[in-house]
Amino acid sequence: MEPLCIFRHIDCEGPGYLAEVLTRHGIPWQLVAIDAGDAVPPSIDGWSGLVFMGGSMSVNDDLPWIDRELALIRAAQAAGLPVLGHCLGGQLISKALGGTITANPVKEIGWHPVRKSGTAMAGKWLDGLPEEMTLFHWHGETFSIPAGAEVILENDNCPQQGFAIGNTLALQCHVEMQAPMVREWVTLYRHEIEHPSATVQSGAQMTARLDEQISQAQRIADALYTRWIGLLSA
Question: Is 0.85 topped by the overall pTM?
Answer without folding.
Answer: yes
